[in-house]
Amino acid sequence: MARPEVLERIKQTEAEADDIVAEAEADREEHIQEAREEAERIREEAREEAASMKEERLAEAREDIEQERATIVEEGEAEREQLEAQAERRREEVVEHVVDLFEEAVHAQT
User: Which stretches does the entry tag as region Disordered (predicted)?
Assistant: First the structure.
């Protein structure tokens, strides 16, 4: 091969190598952009999932609180009814006792 042909071949090979490098750079940038977009999509999905889980847990906690409140109210009502029944049963006893105290006080004055 003559020297001009060798030089031309070298230039041609260098140009091909430059094209390959440029194409590889473009592919690299494209892959980086795709990876960034995928990462953002994953982050957004994670945010949405976290928000959904938060709402779900909050709803469960509210339900638990409502059940606990209902139980406390029910127990309180039952206890109130017991106290009212007990007070009603003792009413006559208390009235009798007060009348006895009143009569003693009246007899003590006479």
Answer: 71-90
